[in-house]
Structure formats: structure tokens, C-alpha cells
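User: Could you go from structure to sequence for me? I need the amino acid at each position, not a summary. C-alpha cells:
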């Protein structure tokens, strides 16, 4: 089992952060497009080769995020119409998320088998997540999924604060 850690830099306007291993070595680099349409997040390996891309669909009534891994679209995250609490669905072939993904405490399953686990680390400066990779073939997809869920949460928080003003 491999453990990786995602710690976003607080107040980072550019949306840049890294994914580290247990020895605090950089394993993945994540860079968000700042003031660009469509909003994207590129996930690169240690050699700076892009392994995943997250794109927020433009001109959509409800937010939709597309996740590509190695050039193939593997999943979408869609906001569902709801009057009260925000609800989202994750569409992916053979992949499902069980648990409370809004609080970053969930398992990722592929065809019913647990391939990864995510837990939010508390008492840290900024958001920090521990990602356990149980199937290393799924590593890029799991990291892309965690980053995509975090993008959805940031988008929802931004929409909520804009609506409050």
C-alpha cells in the first residue's frame, strides 16, 4: 500500500500544489489555470509529464467537471439540481466513491473492490488529505479524482460566497 499526501497551499491564487510521498518527496505537481476559461487543473508526474487533466465545462447551467487520465476521459462530476443541500454525482465506468466525499473521508472502489482511501488530515494549515493507494495501477485516477472533488468543493464555496454578497 502506498500513501500520498495532498496539501494545498493556503491563499494560493495560482492553484499550484504538490502531492508528496511519506518521505515528503514531490510525486505529482498540480497546476490550475488562473483567470483562464475553461478552468483547468493539470496533474503532472515527477518528470513533469501530464498524467491527468481536470476541466470545468463552460456555459453549463449546473457545474460539470471532466477528468481525463492519460488522454482518456475517465469520469465526470456533475452538480444535480437541488433546492437545499448541494448534491453531486460521479459518473465513471466501474468506479464508485463510498463515504462522505464532501468531508474528504471516503473509499474509491473499482468493480466493488477498494482501490484507494482518502482521509482529511485535521489540525493542519490549509487542506491536507492522506491518500492510500491499494491498487497502484489506479494511482493517477485516484489522485485525479481527489483533486477533482477538491475543485468541485472550491467551486461550490466560491459560488456560495458570491451569492452571499
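Assistant: Here is the amino acid at each position, in order:
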Amino acid at each position: 500500500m502506498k500513501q500520498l499526501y495532498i496539501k494545498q497551499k493556503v491563499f494560493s491564487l495560482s492553484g499550484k500544489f504538490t502531492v508528496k510521498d511519506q518521505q515528503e518527496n514531490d510525486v505529482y505537481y498540480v497546476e490550475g489555470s488562473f483567470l483562464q476559461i475553461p478552468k483547468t487543473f493539470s496533474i503532472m508526474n515527477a518528470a513533469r509529464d501530464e498524467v491527468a487533466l481536470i476541466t470545468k465545462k463552460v456555459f453549463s447551467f449546473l457545474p460539470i467537471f471532466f477528468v481525463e487520465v492519460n488522454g482518456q476521459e475517465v469520469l465526470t462530476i456533475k452538480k444535480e439540481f437541488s433546492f437545499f443541500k448541494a448534491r453531486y454525482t460521479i459518473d465513471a465506468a466501474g468506479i464508485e466513491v463510498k463515504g462522505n466525499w464532501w468531508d474528504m473521508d471516503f473509499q474509491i472502489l473499482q468493480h466493488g473492490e477498494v482501490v484507494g482511501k482518502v482521509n482529511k488530515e485535521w489540525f493542519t494549515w490549509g487542506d491536507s488529505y492522506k491518500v492510500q493507494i491499494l491498487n497502484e495501477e489506479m494511482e493517477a485516477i485516484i489522485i485525479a479524482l481527489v483533486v477533482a472533488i477538491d475543485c468541485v468543493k472550491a467551486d461550490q464555496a466560491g459560488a456560495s460566497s458570491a451569492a452571499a454578497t
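One structural detail worth keeping in mind: The chain has one domain: 2-158.
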